[in-house]
Amino acid sequence: MKIGFIGAGNMGGAILKGYAPFAERNGDKIFVYDKKEEVRSGLEEAFPAVTACGRETELVEKSDIVILGVKPNLFETLLPEIAGACTTDQLIISMAAGIRISLIEGYLGADKKIIRIMPNTPAQVGEAMTAICRNGNVGEDDFGHALAIFNSIGRAMEVEESLLHCVIGVSGSSPAYTYMYIEALIKAAQANGMEASKARVFAAQAVLGAAKMVLESDLSAEQLRINVCSPGGTTIEAVNCLFENGFEEKVQEGFQAAVDKSKSMTK
């Protein structure tokens, strides 16, 4: 497969870097265009499977799958530029928050194969969570190619397009909330005498382990939490303190703020 990335910033770059080793092993070719020449050349130098392109249309003409990683406010400029180079055989994948499939169809044509994804930045370490939705032109074979790309850098699941606002709250933006939680644990550990480098590992590994238990256990997250909380012990003391201070409600409020912002951005 020939896979093109237009835009290699935080998210596009994370996916490209996460997928590049698989592309090299599978014999896939990756093309990249970014407005910053140093970004294009840097990726080309770093990954044998990557070839830089000098303009967007050149990339589209060379690619079987085109992944659009530019910011949402650039779509109404980008789409008319590449429309003439897009064909009905290609798969167009957009990761822009707030840009509906119908808007992309309006520029590229209702006969084009279009997928929307909502990934997150842990793609760079092979632990992304990616939501995928598609229009009616995308058959099972093409959809399978997309799933293979995003499963190779973590996990991918199909959802209805209407659920992408929810996805932003629960996985697209939530790594930031999780980093805040880890940062708070590190600061608390430092305040209690632990050096920062050790506190970072203790906090991050605890979060990683807890997440893995949620994914691999048949128990609910609530039950897993209850199982850790021995009566009269240290954990229940901490959990009760967090409950009393509105921990759960504050996380849900942050989630909803991300969802509401996504809805307000939608075109």
Give the helices and strands, then pairings.
Layout: E1 2-6, H1 10-26, E2 29-33, H2 37-46, E3 50-52, H3 56-62, E4 65-68, H4 75-82, E5 91-94, H5 101-108, E6 113-118, E7 128-134, H6 140-151, E8 154-158, H7 164-172, H8 174-191, H9 196-216, H10 221-228, H11 234-244, H12 247-265
Can you put this structure into words, describing what you see?
The chain has 12 helices and 8 strands. The radius of gyration is 21 Å and the shape is elongated. 55% of the residues lie in helices and 15% in strands. Helix 7 crosses helix 12 (247-265) and helix 8 (174-191) crosses helix 9. By secondary structure, the protein is of the alpha/beta class. It has an 8-stranded mixed beta sheet, with helices on both faces.
Judged by helices, strands and strand pairing, the structural class is alpha/beta
Estimate the helix proportion, in percent. 55-70%
Largest sheet: 8 strands, mixed
What is the topology, as strand order, of the major beta sheet? 3-2-1-4-5-6-7-8
Name the beta content range.
Answer: 5-15%
Question: Any low-confidence stretches, pLDDT <50, length ≥5?
Answer: none
List how many beta strands DSSP finds: 8
> How do the helices and strands follow one another from N- to C-terminus?
EHEHEHEHEHEEHEHHHHHH
How many whole angstroms does the radius of gyration measure?
21 Å
The coarse overall form would be elongated
SS summary, helix count: 12
